[in-house]
Amino acid sequence: MKILAVADLHGDISLAKALAKKAEQEQVDTVILCGDIVASDESPEGIVGQFTKKNKRVILLPGNHESLATINFLSELYSATNLHAYSMYIGGKKEIGIFGCGFANMGPFGLPDQEIHAILKKGFNYIKGAKKKIMITHAHPSGTLMEKLSQFIPGSEGVQKAVEELQPDILLCGHVHEAEGIEEKLGNTLIINVSRKGKVIEI
User: How confident is the model at residue 42 (pLDDT cuts 50, 70, 90)?
Assistant: First the structure.
């Protein structure tokens, strides 16, 4: 199973086209868009379609710059899956379980950390039988190197608490642009800031 995970496109269609081409060249099975897909909740068309044109399954969730209504619209328009407050198996035979929470603990479309934690905990319960467990968020955890790289964007205590309690194998996130591409461990969990450049992950 190959995944291309991307965050913080902010409506950049040229970048989406380049990443869709990369998804095709790398023969990825699934594209995961970790929030802030559009620019300030405006002009949502065009981004997700770049990936579905390449016949890639798309899973997405909202960042702190788009509403749930926009993400639901994009999900329906492009037959994508909205992973916010949802969980699912990919890869067959319950090999890989993914669960997610969008938004962040700040910004125009924010969620309190307590709610972020509760959503992730509930989602995990549905896929806890998976051999590999992947958490998808927009926000990065507090108390990590990613948080220290920005003076303006705090990490999420809700995400941090969920990682420490649930110990997924991988957490894919974005949100803090200064932490582009950073990988670090929190307990047994590998945390990857997938960034605007995207990250191909083979599981």
Answer: low
Write the burial class of residue 37 (CB in 10 Å: 0-12 exposed, 13-18 middle, 19+ buried).
buried
As a whole number of Å, the end-to-end CA separation of the chain is: 5
Question: How far apart (Å, rounded) are the C-alpha atoms in residues 12 and 110?
Answer: 22
Task: State the alpha helices, DSSP H only, in 40-187.
Answer: 47-52, 68-78, 113-127, 145-148, 157-166
CATH (domain of 82): 3.60.21.10
Q: Which residue has the tokens 């997700």?
A: 48
Answer whether 174's CB lies under 8 Å from 63's CB: yes
Number of compact structural domains in the chain:
1
Specify the pLDDT at position 169.
98
